[in-house]
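Person: Show me a sequence?

Helper:
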Amino acid sequence: MSTRAPAELTPEEIAAVRSWVIHEDEHVLAFNKPSGLSSQGGRIQAHTLDDLLWAFMRSNGKRPELVHRLDRDTSGVIIAARTKPAAGFLGKALQARRFRKTYQALLSAAPEPRAGTIDTPLMRQEIGRESYTRAVTADTPGAQAALSRYRTLSSSEEGALVELDPATGRMHQLRVHMASIGRPMVGDVRYGGALTFAGRAAPRLMLHASKLVFPHPSGGYVTVEAPLPEDFLALKAAGGL
């Protein structure tokens, strides 16, 4: 676990990160991360969730470590390991694809068909200081296999609420896969998503990590769910979904 110098956190930051905890035991912490907060390594000069984990520093100077990431604008479930053995166990489980992630997203129209699998290779690109992912053919140099499943939960004339399950974990995978079938996510400026929904401005990328099922270091599986945030619920209601 980390032994680098602790980040200097304000009482408000400590209270905020503690308020996001949705599961806690001796091995694992799970948070409902708000949109707009980088998981770690963000270029914006502000504390990341990784920095905020110093709020849980133990008496030996060590603190939890994130097991995976969410995009800055994506809200929802993210977990951290509280001990070095837990970090090792969960890291190996993630690599072995033993995590089952479920997301919800708003689209401007229901996909056709309403449920399906997207098996389109992806490739990461660096353009200036920005990282992008694009859908490519399997014979493209640098292409990586990627598989996503989706199903429409509800739809109206205004748009659709879909549930998404990434079987692989490529950068921006769900965003690019949905854009590749002509259904970019509402608020996804980078990949062509609409900036309004049901007559209202989309405040951000409307993607939420709603559930995570993962193997626990003590045995068995744990399911953690994060409720939809207020901005997501407001657009969902406006669209009659």
The mean pLDDT is 95. The first strand starts at residue 21 and ends at 24. Residues 84-95 form the longest helix (12 residues). The two ends are 43 Å apart (CA to CA).
